[in-house]
Amino acid sequence: MRLFGRREAAGDDAAWAAHEQRAGALGEAGARLLRLGVIGTPAEVLARVGELAAAGADTLYFHVYDTDPDHIRLLGSEVLPQVS
C-alpha cells in the first residue's frame, strides 16, 4: 500500500480520480504540495526523509490530504516510529 498516490502509485482509475478531485479542491497551493510532496511506500517515504535529513532538513511536516484511515494508520505504524 502506498501512503499517497500518483497515477502509477494509485493502482486503479478510481483511486486516481479521487486524487485528482482532492488536488482540485485544494487549489493551486495544495495541488503543488501533492505534486511535489513525498509519496510512496513507507520504505520510499523513509528513504526520502533520510535524504532530506542528510541535506540538512531538521523539521518535517506530514500533511495527510486523505481521510482514508488506512493511510493514517500506515503513516503512524510504519513511518513515524522510524523518524526521530
What is the topological layout?
Elements: H1 7-10, H2 13-36, H3 42-54, H4 69-79
Helix pairs in contact: 3-4
Question: Would you write up a description of this structure?
Answer:
The chain is mainly α and 84 residues long. It is 62% helix and 0% strand. The protein is built from four helices and no strands. Helix 3 crosses helix 4. It is globular, with a radius of gyration of 13 Å.
Sheet of most strands:
none
By DSSP, the count of extended strands is 0
* Outline type: globular
Radius of gyration, in Å, reads 13 Å
Ranges with pLDDT <50 over ≥5 residues? 1-10
| Helical amount | 55-70%
Listing every helix as H and every strand as E from the N terminus to the C terminus, the arrangement reads HHHH
- Name the beta content range: under 5%
The overall pLDDT average reads: 76
Structural class: mainly alpha
The total domain count is 1
Span of the ends, CA to CA: 23 Å
Please name the defining characteristics of this protein.
84 residues, mainly alpha, 4 helices, disordered N terminus
Sum this structure up briefly.
By secondary structure, the chain is mainly α.
